[in-house]
Structure formats: structure tokens, C-alpha cells
Amino acid sequence: MTIAAKNFGKIAVLMGGPSAERDISLLSGNAVLTALLGAGLQAHAFDPAERSVWELKEAGFTHAFIALHGRFGEDGTVQGALQTLGIPYTGSGVMASAIGMDKWRTKLVWLAAGVPTPKFRMLAPGVDFSGVMDELGLPLIIKPAREGSSIGVSKVSSAAEFGPAFDAAYKLDPLVIAEEFVSGQEMTAAVFGDVALPLVRIEPLQGDYDYQNKYFTDNVRYHCPAGIAPEIEEAVQQDALRAFQVLGCRGWARADVILRADGSYSFLEMNTCPGMTGHSLVPMAARAAGISFEQLCLNILEQAKLD
């Protein structure tokens, strides 16, 4: 047994879970599990959709690596359970996880802190679509406030598309956001500890950077280094750190950013438990910074703690 294995004890890699992002979580969790086992650690898969989290204490787990995405895993719920059990866990704590999962409240915090984010309106049944379109313009984006991986997100280009897009988002979450569409280059800004990693620029070869293209096709090119002006990259990285810190995040996270042609940019959301799949962007940014996937997983685990 290695020194690292002795220090960490028995590790639960939480994966799967009950959210709409279950399939992606299983991919992330298995990648993390393989890396931890390869490093000689005593790691085990643990699916909260199949076993109660309260079994973690009974089974003698001493640490939890959270590879859950979406509700239950990324919204403060499982963090609160682990906090109650006294089991140190990776990533952000209860409050930051809950706020980060909620795109509306994230925007409120960012606006108060001066982090640039697109204009938006909260929507409710019976909303005056025409008023929202007059305010935000077309096209615009409609999305559920508390889902990830582009689930339930629609781009609305005409008045006829507004109602169906709202209904699709509302089925997933009663909190629905209409957001100004920002045209530009899609990027992600990962934060690891107190360091902003190199930016990743995303170039869909066809269609949008949606759920299917994110995880299940090779129709996307990723550029890291991002190939943008150094002064713009540094500015985005510094704002990513600020966006991370004002939400109270810790450990690691990934912000989604749009860079406009004039060099300005807007932050869309913060992912407090980013993907760790073969298409995932934090491992890609880490590699560009000279950090292997196995080392990334170990370093994330080293930062595991209670709130």
C-alpha cells in the first residue's frame, strides 16, 4: 500500500445518481475511479441511486470524491449529507454548490460583484413573450435555472418558438431563465485551487455545442491553448477566479464564457462539479498546464474536506 493510499483510507467515488445527467456522471466517475485505482488508492464506485448515502459511514468510507452531475450531486444536497456524516468530500461546500447550480442566483451574485454576465429575465407561466423579446432581442436563450449539460436549453429565433421553448424548460424546473443571446466564441475557464487554468476554446464543426455534441460525437474541435490575445486570456482568467471566489467555491470548478468579436466577454454559468469524461474540458486544460489526469484526480482528492 502506498503512503497516499494510507493517508486517504477508503474512498467512495460517487457516480451515477438520480439526475438527468446520470449517464455522464457514470462516465466521469469511472474515469476517476480508474485513475485513483491506478495510483494505488483504495477506491470504490458508489451510486447514490442504488444505495443510500447513509451506508457510506457504515461501510467505513473515509473520503468521498464527488463525480455526480446535476441535481442531488451538484446542488448542495449530497454535500449536506456528507457534512452530516463527517466524511470529507471534494469540491465546493453546501452553500457554493447550491448557488452555483442555480443560474439565476449565480447571476445575482455575479452582478453584485461586477462579473460580466448576459442580460436576463425570469419567466413564469403566462409571461408576456413579446415584452421579453423586446427587452432581450432575438435570438435569445431559454433554459431551466437548475439543470446542466445544456439539458432543456433552447435558442429562440422567432416568436413562434418561445412558447414551446418555455414549456420544455418549465417541465424540468419551475425556475426558467430567458437570457440575451451572446454571439461569439465559446470558451471555458477552469479554476483549480486558487489558480486559473489555460482557457479552452470550443469550435462545433456542425450544429451547436449541445448535449449530444458535448459527450457523444466528435463534431467539436477544442483548442487549448485557446489562441486568443494573451491580454484577453489573462483578463478572462482573473474574472474566472473572481467568479469562483464570490460564489464561495473551493477545490475546482469550470466557468462557461462567450468571447465577443470586440474582445468583451460574458460568463454564463459555473459548474462546481465539472465533467471528467474523455470529452471533458477541465482535464484538457490541466494537461495544457502539465497536469496529468491521474495527478489532477489526486490533487482534487487532496483538497477534500468538510465545510
Question: Key terms for this structure?
Answer:
single chain, 307 residues, alpha+beta, Rossmann fold, D-amino Acid Aminotransferase, Chain A, domain 1, Dna Ligase, domain 1, four-stranded antiparallel sheet, 12 helices, 37% helix
Radius of gyration: 19 Å
CATH class wording of the largest domain: Alpha Beta
CATH architecture of the largest domain: 2-Layer Sandwich
Determine the strand fraction and express it as a percent band: 15-25%
| SS-based class | alpha+beta
**Amino-to-carboxy terminus distance:** 29 Å
Number of helices: 12
| SSE arrangement, N to C | HEHEHEHHHEHEEHEEEEHEHEEHH
Q: Tell me how many strands there are.
A: 13
What characteristic shape results from the CA principal axes? globular
Going by CATH, what is the homologous superfamily of the largest domain? ATP-grasp fold, B domain
What's the main sheet like?
6 strands, antiparallel
Q: Name the poorly predicted regions.
A: none
Helical residue percent band: 25-40%
Overall structural domain count: 3
Q: What name is given to the CATH topology of the largest domain? A: D-amino Acid Aminotransferase, Chain A, domain 1
Question: What does the average pLDDT come to?
Answer: 93
